[in-house]
Amino acid sequence: MKRILLGAGLGVAAALALAAPAQAAKTLVYCSEGSPENFNPMVNTTGTSFDVSLPVYNNLVEFERGGTKVVPGLAESWEISDDGLTYTFHLRKGAKWHSVGDFKPTRDANADDVLWSFNRQWKTDHPFHKVSGGAYDYFNDMAMPTLLKSIDKVDDYTVKFVLNKVEAPFLANLAMPFAPIQSAEYAEFLQKKNQIDKMDQVPVGTGPFQFVAYQKDAVIRYKTFEPFWGGRAPIDNLVFAITPDAAVRYAKLKAGECNIVPYPNPADLETMKKDTSITLMEQEGLNVGYLAFNTTKKPFDDVRVRRALNMAIDKKAIVDAVYQGAGVPAKNPIPPTMWSYNKDIEDYPFDPERAKKLLAEAGYPNGFESDLWAMPVQRPYNPNAKRMAEMMQADLAKIGVKAKIVQYEWGEYRKRLQAGEHLMGMMGWTGDNGDPDNFLNVLLGCEAARIGGSNISKWCNKEFDDLTVQAKRTTDVAARTKLYEQSQVIFKEEAPWFPVAHSVVHMALSKNVVDYKMEAFGIHRFYGVDLKQ
Amino acid sequence: MLRFILTRVSLVIPTFLGVTFLTFLLIRLVPGDPIEVRVGERGIPPERLEQLRHELGLDQSLWHQFLDYIGGVLSGDLGLSLVTRNPVLDEFLTLFPATIELAALAMLFATVVGLPAGIIAAVKRGSIFDHGVMGISLTGYSMPIFWWGLLLILFFSVGLGWTPVSGRLDLLYYVEPVTGFMLIDTLLAGEYGAFWSALHHLILPMVVLGTVPLAVVARMTRSAMLEVLGEDYIRTAKAKGLAGKRVIGLHALRNALIPVVTVIGLQVGTLLGGAILTETIFSWPGVGKWLIESINRRDYPALQGGVLLIASTVMAVNLLVDLLYGVLNPRIRHSR
Predict the structure, then answer these.
(1) For residue B316, how many other CB atoms are within 10 A of its CB?
(2) Integer Cα distance of A465 and A445 in angstroms
(3) Cα torsion B317, B319, B322, B323: sign
(4) How many CB pairs under 8 A join A and B?
(5) Residues B153, A429: C-beta atoms closer than 8 Å
(6) Domain named Solute-binding protein family: which ranges (chain A) (predicted)?
(7) Measured distance CA(B191)–CA(A497) in Å, rounded
(8) How much is the pLDDT for A525?
(9) Is B139 strand, coil or helix?
(10) Pick from A35, A132, A248: CB nearest B165
(11) Cis amide leading into A496 (omega within 30)
(12) Angle formed at CA A97 by CA A62 and CA A140, multiple of 5 degrees
């Protein structure tokens, strides 16, 4: 670690020397919530770690600022073959690599770097595969090893990906943080120096900001990379000041020590809204919190029971009490900000009388006994599952359903739900790539309904599944939208879930921050942000 | 004297083993392993879980893992952090100076304020000052660190703007870590502005962390002084016509210091424990904050190594304190 700091220190001296004469160097300070594991998103799974790599790297394709649309990154353009199996990417010329420490790149980013980066995650015999632990969780989770057939270099600026099957979300997957392009030349340089571990500790990328130094658990420094292919960033320096306590982050913002603060305390939101010295931004998160009924077990194999319970719980009261203004009631499995969200769908009304009647029709005039699983931890889509479970329990008691609240340790909880041990269980999801497939197929598809799969309703509806599978095999967005809209209608009729809410994410900013955009995937990016002097 | 030292040192070994075993066991009793903690909603296929557990050596029996670990520790290898893949010892040594700097200043603060306060309270027993000091130290002792820290931040940093909210150095400065002690490094670099900034950043965390030891030192000094002041030799000294200050400063204080030094030594444990909370509030890049993250991420080697190293520090300080007795009080030295 010391070695790294020393090496990076030289860079800092240079950075300070550059920044020194200009008194008005613009330094944007982001008070981040935690320390990163390292600076390589391939091996990480947390937003905290993704955030620190995003300034440095580019992907082949990227998500547009503040949106879910896929836009060019290092690839300037691409073509998809008619059979949907071959993706040809044309790389942008003149994308420069950063110089860090004594590494001086001699060439621009090209096809070799793309191959190097994907092979690192894919091929176990790649010399860097084992670096930083070698667990490429996202690469595996997105099923890349089975999806990819080959990746070939056509020429220096053209790369061809061939898939084993048609997968419409593939392009969006490549825009996810786990797929950055690293420098093959830098890797070779480190190999010669016998310092391959530095690859992920002192990152070299083609992104808008260049890494300067990381003082462990305290400060991460970047400076603007002048020759960035997308144009120089408006600010000169970017600093992450690691501040784990939410109340302290707010205090730092008020004292002028930070410009941008993520994850405010829910309890502080009211005060922050009234605080005229700061700006509070909010956006519906790309997530959903829900209660799943195990459709393979009695009485939840009967759709009337599931519908009855959908009418028995007072959703609005729960959202008000548990989310305290940081949530909107959910009616569909996908969040309203996602394309193909079916806004015409009508939610079940809160109507305990009708619920009781439906239960009687299904053969349970006096209700029944059930369990009600609640996760033991706070999640982005559910700030307090225990409280939520208690409110649901009270509502259900009114129609004669006696629910017993069950809790396990988080890892165990998830495992048991995925094994289908429950009757009713709470869960949620945060989107990875902005594609509806990432919700509808992953959470409700037949493939995921197996024991151990993430469809915890274990609901396998042929009609629904046909629609989502067909949508996955089509690359035409308009056609896919229609299919997904239709599948949401079936979801509502069949009611395998009681969808609870989509949480709202907040960011607090100092007044001099210009053009910060909140991101859909819970990440934070600072290219394009400016500071008013 | 040598025998005394050897006896004390030999007692350290079972303590050391006990600490190692307890840390090893306790973190494993916490449900959830390092892999499951990070997989989130998505879950992980059983084959892949097995493979990862195998790579991390978590599929072996607890005994096997423990013996492996002890073997490593004895040869000076604390293993790699499961999260960052850096050697645990390197990470600890990078962060520990920040904790020591903070703890040392907190102790200094506690002693410099607590000792005189306790002495005056004892000498002026029953006065308003005495009641005041005792009342305030009881309050200080009972104050939750978290609340106290935030209160000071709100008042001095946000309200008055006198001190920075958190961190160790103004972001304007970058000082090359040489010793890891910011006060020393800034001076070495000749950056006096940075030195002032570092000092400024230390004030609030120092006060927060030093509050409990301060209360303990003040109360202990007072009661030890009261006891000594009642001794015959003090009356004799006074009868000889010595000046009051000389009696208190030389005859009474020297004798009263022995229990106070013990207490100060014991406070090292309290300080390092309190540092965990203080560092989290003030975003202080020390080992306390690092340990909290290691627990959350179930980073077994980091947590085990960190606790072991801190325990060793506490044991070493206690040993030093024991040895210091001999210097302060020849009777102890000779009786063993």
Answers:
(1) 12
(2) 6
(3) negative
(4) 139
(5) no
(6) 69-447
(7) 62
(8) 95
(9) helix
(10) A248
(11) no
(12) 45
Token reading at B272: 């390092």
From the first residue on, what is the mean pLDDT of each consecutive set of 10 residues in chain B (336 residues)? 77 85 84 75 78 83 86 86 87 92 93 90 87 89 89 91 89 84 89 90 94 91 86 80 75 80 83 88 90 86 90 85 73 57
- Taking a C-beta distance cutoff of 8 angstroms, is the pair B204, B156 a contact? yes
Token readout for A211 is: 């890494």
Q: What is the pLDDT of residue A528?
A: 94
Whose structure tokens read 């995925």? A418
In this complex, is the C-beta atom of A248 within 8 Å of any C-beta atom belonging to chain B? yes
Task: Give me B191's structure tokens.
Answer: 């950056």
Q: Which pTM does this prediction carry? A: 0.84
Contact A255 B36 (CB under 8 A): no
Distances (CA, A) of B102 to A33, A444, B154, B278: 22, 53, 21, 10
Per-residue pLDDT tens digits for A433-468: 888 999 999 899 998 888 888 899 999 999 999 999
**Would you give the DSSP letter of residue B173?**
-
Would the CB atoms of B289 and A135 count as touching at under 8 Å? no
Judged by a CB distance cut-off of 8 A, whether residue A304 touches chain B is no
Rounded to the nearest 5°, which phi and psi values hold at A59?
-100, 175
Whether B227 and chain A come into contact, CB under 8 Å, resolves to no
**Residues A262-311 pLDDT 10s:** 988 878 888 999 999 999 999 888 899 999 999 999 999 999 999 999 99
CB-based contact B308:B270 (threshold 8 Å): no
For residue A363, pLDDT beyond 90? yes
Whether residue A10 has pLDDT greater than 50:
no
Please report where in the chains the tokens 């952090």 appear, as a residue. Answer: B81
Distance CA B95, CA B302 (A): 12
Q: Is the pLDDT of residue A21 over 70?
A: no
Q: Is residue A11 predicted with pLDDT exceeding 70?
A: no
Verify whether the Cβ–Cβ distance B43 to A218 is below 8 Å. Answer: no
| Residue in chain A nearest B89 by alpha carbon | A1
Q: How far apart are alpha carbons A255 and B166 in whole angstroms?
A: 10
By Cβ distance, the residue of B45, B158, B285 closest to A218 is B285
SS3 A507: strand
Supply the Cα-derived Rg of chain B in whole angstroms.
24
DSSP calls for A153-179 = EEETTEEEEEESS--TTHHHHHTSTT-
Which residues of chain A lie closer than 8 angstroms to B39, CB-CB?
45, 137, 411, 414
| C-alpha–C-alpha distance, residues B109 and B148, integer Å | 16
Best to test chain B binding among A12, A129, A248 (most B CBs inside 10 Å): A248
